[in-house]
User: What shape does this take?
Amino acid sequence: MPFDVEVRGLDLLVLDPEETRGQGCRVPVDLDPADPHRPARLEPAPRPAAAGPSASGDPEILFTFDDGPSPSTTPKVLDILAKYKIHAVFFLVGEMVDSQNKKVPALVARMLREGHVIANHTMHHKDLCRVKQDDTAVSDIDDGRDAIEKLTGMKIGWFRTPYGSRCKRVEDLLAERGLTHFHWDLDPQEWKHNDPKKAFDYVTGSLARSSDRNVLLMHDIKTATVKALPEILDWILAENQRRAESKKRPIRIVQAPLLALEQLPKGLAPWTLDVTARITGVRTALAAVLP
Assistant: This one.
């Protein structure tokens, strides 16, 4: 049965719209002459960052998680995010959503109830540039979306291609569906090395040097993520205290529903904020969720 999510996360959409101005991204791709569907290499994304430039002028970070949901590790990630009052983007794999595990529907419902944004990460997590048939890529995109929408009863608007693969085939398929690939800026590759300290060092070192918005890619199906995540968040709190004492710009956490709000058509965001504020009456209190 579809979840009742008509007022999901409304109380999170009340921060100042003047602090929320973002744009999408494009990642340039050189195509392999021998195979027009296969990228020869991926170039780093230019600024603006993957989720647009910093809206506050401070270093910013948006937390995103791929490849779930996992009944064993995703609840732990959600517990951590709840403790620190953070709302993330979860890029779900359709076959994980459509599994026979009876815990999955409640887990996805919890994501929505707690104010996170869910998005499509394909049905089977295939490299869409390397599969031989266009139809295979088509079904992986569409079946993933359908599995998530069937479970939640809501439309899914964001998409991330597995491995970040980009090629003409993917660009064309996404354009036909009115989608863009939601890329990232920081990838600690904890899925590969499974070392929480290495992930911590990479993320905190990158943030310490950053002056812009950063989309962080992690994986809620990995124990390294579960271990590294609270350490990263504790570091941000401590680092912001140090920055306050030295009068430096703080690191701000971008709440995922706010990013969705940024991407509404121009003129609609202030109206949404006003209506939401009238409904909830908690604009000032919820503005405190950013560091």
